[in-house]
Amino acid sequence: MYRSRGGFFVPKMTRKILSYAFKRLVFAVPTILGLLVLTFFISRVIPADPAALVAGEMATPGQIEALRKQYSFDKPLYVQLGLYLGQLLRCDLGKSLYSGRRVFRDLIDRFPATLELTIVAMLVSILAGVPLGIVAALKRNSLLDHVLRGFTVGGLAIATFWLGIMLQLLFSMWLGVTPLGGRIGVSPPKFITGLYILDAVLTLNGTALLSAIQHITLPAITLAFASFATITRFTRSGVLDVMQRDFILYERAMGLPPRLIVYKYLLRNAMISTVTQIGLLFGLLLAGAIVIEMVFDWPGLGLYAFQSIILSDYQAILGVTLWAGVVYVTVNLMVDIALTFIDPRKAEI
Question: Is 0.90 surpassed by the pTM of this model?
Fold first, then answer.
């Protein structure tokens, strides 16, 4: 153990994990900055005049020029970039050209919808993918294993927008058991976290809870399908790899019960690659569920990003990009730290 300057004792492993987390955080800063600069310049070279789009077809050249000066579009690109970076230092993402609201406010309002959809989709993927991946590995080359492998290949090959439309046709249009789109069909529950399902549970609002679950079912399943396939395949591969290790063969030779070997020795080592993949998938889904939100009219960041791109709303595009980059980097940082608890050797890197 080590004594810090404040006189507190810090365990050696905790100290290493904190040091590792700090290094990862430092390395993440250039990544986010590079993403911001690249997106800024790409958004400025597309063939569209944002001032003219905002002003409308009936605007006069004078009105367009006034808007161009108001938003600094008449200045060189490097000056615009400097002004934007200055805004970021003041925690200001600018104002949307179309909504007239602060972009940061728009992101805050829409983020809970995307977060809720991503969490439910990942829970479905994990709760189904991990157990099935373990069973497929333990029953390698069985009928169940072959069926699961075929199913996961389909999950990786099928386009998510096509799957979402097919589910809408089947369950919403033909059977009529789920809503076609949207996030809730009744008055939202009292705002606590912004997650409708959790807020409905906390406020004991059964009507809102039922409606929120009905609305999130199809988009969550659609979003979870590819993730489920990936998690199942990684879990199966990790378990098969660990099963061939010498220490597992030794435990078997010692006559330990198969369940004890699986739960105590096999899973902890086999889950390292799966946990890593879960973190990557969560970050990807959280930062880029655009297609699913479009298909199901889900009022999250994905739909907001799509609308911003269509309307050439530069401030909103940059805001969403920066937000998505920060979220993705943060999730991966948390996953790396979690992996150090599963495999402490990672903190030595």
Answer: no
